[in-house]
């Protein structure tokens, strides 16, 4: 009777062991089925408008909010620019004179196009074309560009201005949903094939990334749709890469434990339980640390940086959940078969293995630890010495696109034949009572070409004021500036291109000049937006970097129950980051010849490298602490390095490869971030984790655990 009962319980237990993993897999498949379609919908809740990400207190933001009081509709100007090989011919001028009406008939123009404006040298012309400003104007710009294909011989046409550059950005980000994801998955798959030498296991690991990403996209779409976060193309791209990389990293850690457990357990279910016990703590600890570091971005003034915090944190949470539920369940169902053809075999007595690469590295470090860490630290410090050469104080809008850009070519033509700021004026709101004084103050600033006021009475929509009003044609005789709530909106054309450093200096000087003439004046426009964005980004560097370091140090203190080890580890990680920035600066300045970098580049690089670098530190040091209790600190360090070295290096290669995939997006920001993080992760996962930190721990011995009990006794 007892044997029948035992047999029944055994069958029930076996049934549950199969049913529960199958249920988990089905639940995640359902998540992927629901979340998958949102890959194509995420652009619906994204915006690439720079003013959308500035704080409400920024002058340029306030101007955008208030300028709608002065004219109907929300528009963004495109500038159609034309350049002849010599002086414009009669045929070319006739074509241009008829063009404003033809452009109006395309159906994409919002409002009245400007008349043709000819350059003084007679070789170029421009037409300002207002387009709908609600969404990225890619379709409207494409329509205008298509209409300009049939120009007379010898006349080249370009579409530039704010709408032209916005369309270029939209086109650059258009590959995020498809190309970027496919490239990242393909690169990871190839690496996993090499690591596992199995055609089945890489698919299971990639499925873990895909289900995690599907769940993340679903949640984030609803967060953005509810207005909780504002996301743009760069946040989308980073999310895709981060989830694929993090989920794969956590999967590598679990698979390593599972493979090891299969050699000690006949039952694949017992091996699963053993692997989960050994891997959940370091995965949760490392993931929690990354999340804490990412959430420090909530301290940012810029909504784009602020949004990346919760968005990326959501991705990390889903990556951990998938790696600790879907992956174990799928591997439990597949058992040893998923490792085919190199299936791990059960061994009752594990025979000592021949010393491998990591045993040799561990012996090398243990033999002369002080020399190893000194030489390694000096090498990193030499690389770090070049970090200040990275010019991260902003980059011109015309330099954002990598490769050919119609908008940039058009901007160059504008700068050659017209005042550089044509079509992208500084928008300034002043009081009607101080209008004359404000205009005089603006005219006193070097770099101002002309001033006009928005006017509902004018055929062109504006009326020149100040010195620009002298000798006005009859069409402006009765035109007066539009007044709204006692305010007037001025459009100030600058002598230099709107995205140039000279234009930024001019706008800064205008703001200073208006402090006395009209303290309530607000200065906005493209140039002012760039200034306010860079100011916010530089402020974020000073606030977020110390916050991330503080949070991660505190978490390491709690995890390792030590003060000495966390301080040492954080210093090593910061040195690694500075070395990565130094090498990146050399590559950007002397190999790729980039004109500079956005302030967000070192900020994002720091957050990802420090947070993800600490990720590998936790994998290593939690194992060191575990082994220290058995064999002492120095031998524990050696054993931990041997066991985790291969996993950490593989994880680093995978994460570096996924971030390198960001370079397929033809934007300087993305290419720079891809290189910094990819190189930095490789540096961290190899040199720092393999040599610097092990050598420091070997040299310090049990003192590394001060003031915990492990510092007072060593096995």
UniProtKB/TrEMBL annotation:
Main location: membrane
UniProt subcellular location: Cell membrane
Protein biosynthesis listed as a keyword: no
Domain Membrane transport protein MMPL intervals: 53-371, 412-707
Membrane topology value: Multi-pass membrane protein
Keyword Cytoplasm among UniProt keywords: no
Transmembrane stretches, start-end: 178-196, 203-224, 236-258, 279-300, 312-339, 372-390, 543-560, 567-589, 601-619, 640-665, 671-692
Entry's Gene Ontology cellular component terms: plasma membrane
Alphabetical UniProt keywords: Cell membrane, Membrane, Transmembrane, Transmembrane helix
Pfam families: MMPL
Family from the record: Belongs to the resistance-nodulation-cell division (RND) (TC 2.A.6) family. MmpL subfamily.
Official protein name in the record: MMPL family transporter
Organism: Rothia terrae
